[in-house]
Amino acid sequence: MARTPTPHNEAVAGQIAPFVLMPGDPLRAKRLAEAYLEGVEQFNGVRNMLGYTGTYQGSPVSVMGSGMGMPSIGIYSYELFNFYGVESIVRIGTAGGVAPSVRLRDIVLGMGACTDSNYAHQFNVPGTLAPIADFGLLRRAADAAERLGYPVRVGNVLSSDVFYNDDRTAEQRWAKMGVLAVEMESAALYLNAMRAHRRALTILTVTDVVSRGEALTAEERQESLTQMMEVALSLAKPEQVLRN
Ligand SMILES: O=P(O)(O)O[C@H]1O[C@H](CO)[C@@H](O)[C@H]1O
Ligand SMILES: O=c1cc[nH]c(=O)[nH]1
């Protein structure tokens, strides 16, 4: 630890909370910090990958953009886990529905993250690594979503390297295997957490279903993002505190 700042993050040790929320869009990080946190201070502006720390109901929380794709979240999450002592990263993102049963506005909790990326190659295991979420975060997020009455699905997501896929049949083949939704970051986040022995979870809002030509309106999107944020913030208090 304590090798701070980095080429991508100008925070000094202690400026980032052990619990970090990561939307893809840095401007969403700014809006979320301003809307939900108290005593907010900006800790990063390098490359406009905005990061903020404040408190939520007394618990320290940081919010930082991850950028799009696995190389981007790979860098930021690696630095947060390994140089800034971050314990938990919860990705809060948008996704496309893949399984036919998935509806617009569903909240998808990524239990596992399938991928078409080669990110795991670096770990050189003699087989296939399964990027998975932290069970404690996953269980608490599922409980919170159910308690709040939000439509929640738990299962596999696809973290893809491509948004505009030339292979139009690829999605159907993931759907055949029960994959719920497609996004672009979770596999790298989960693998970095696994390697650092820390915690990670992805919470997604389904904002479009390409196969059915459906997409949320701006208003519906905002409402769904608010629901996702409520679920994510319910994880800010450390688990052991909740048990006392
Ligand atoms: O809404 P975010 O978190 O950026 O997530 C999704 O949106 C981007 C693509 O439009 C990709 O980053 C994908 O993972
Ligand atoms: O990666 C993404 C994100 C949102 N919607 C999609 O279809 N794909």
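^ uracil complex. The two ends are 30 Å apart (CA to CA). Residues 94-96, 163, 182-184, 207-208, 210 surround uracil (ligand 2) (CB under 6 Å).
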